[in-house]
Amino acid sequence: MQEEEITLDLRDFYYILKKRRMLIAIVTVVCTLVAGILSFFIIKPTYEATTTIIIGKPESDGKDSTQYNDVMMYQNLVKTYAKIASSNTVMESTSNKLKGTIGVGELKKKISAAPQEGTQILQITGQSKDPKQAVNMVNAVVQAFVSESKRVFPTGGDIQVMDKVQFPDKPIKPKKALNMAIAFFVGLMASVGFSFMLECMDNTIKTEEDVARYLDMPIIGIIPRGEV
Asked: Could you give the angle at which helices 21-37 and 2-19 cross, rounded to 10 degrees?
């Protein structure tokens, strides 16, 4: 008995999908096309410029070699330098270097400074719709950060730029293929769910299959629709 019910449920599922296949196909295709149009033509691409800075011991500290405790200390110091790089003072100085073209509030949204876990490296990243602006922002932040760090933390570590900012050739977002794949999946799931909802709300009998399914009666004959 239980096997019969499971088979019947699967048949119902297949029947609904077959009956609403056009609706499912149209909704899925439309969602995918809309996501493609938005990703390719509407949403402006965002570019990212990045530089890395290493924090080490000062050259004039009188020590001949770097000890394990020194490494751990400078790894912890990187977190302090990340806060300095994100401070209002550095952002104000950066805005001044960019001649006020970008305000402090906007810079704080576009610039991030993150310590790399387990290292003495600080990564500074800038995002913008204009790749040239992204590069200019990061360069200006680095200059302001180095200057401000030496002023407020003169006994801290030695700051050296590891990787210079490279001009971004490709945008990091929107991720066109991913957006279209998500839209396809969402459209498919939404259309299938909507199809089942319509089927539950529809209690009319339209075809001979419906007679056999819902009334469990044999079909004796079919009256063809006449031409007007």
From this structure: 60
Query: Rounded distance, CA 17 to CA 224, Å?
Result: 26
**Residues pairing with 114 in the sheet:** 123
Q: Where are the beta strands (DSSP E) in 84-201?
A: 111-115, 121-128, 158-163
Token output for 92 = 């104000």
86 near 148, Cβ under 8 Å?
Answer: no
The Cα–Cα gap between 126 and 135 comes to 7
> 52 and 122 in contact (C-beta within 8 Å)?
yes
Query: What dihedral angle (degrees, nearest 10) is formed by the CA atoms of 106, 180, 31, 203?
Result: -130
Instruction: Give the contacts of 180 (CB within 8 A, at least 6 positions apart).
Output: 32, 35, 36, 39
Q: What is the pLDDT of residues 181-224, one digit of tens each?
A: 999 999 999 999 998 888 788 766 666 666 666 666 676 667 66
Structural contact between residues 49 and 131, judged by C-beta atoms closer than 8 angstroms: yes
For the question of whether the overall pTM of this predicted structure is more than 0.85, the answer is no
Residue 221, φ and ψ in degrees, nearest 5: -165, 170
Instruction: Give the type of residue at 195.
Output: S
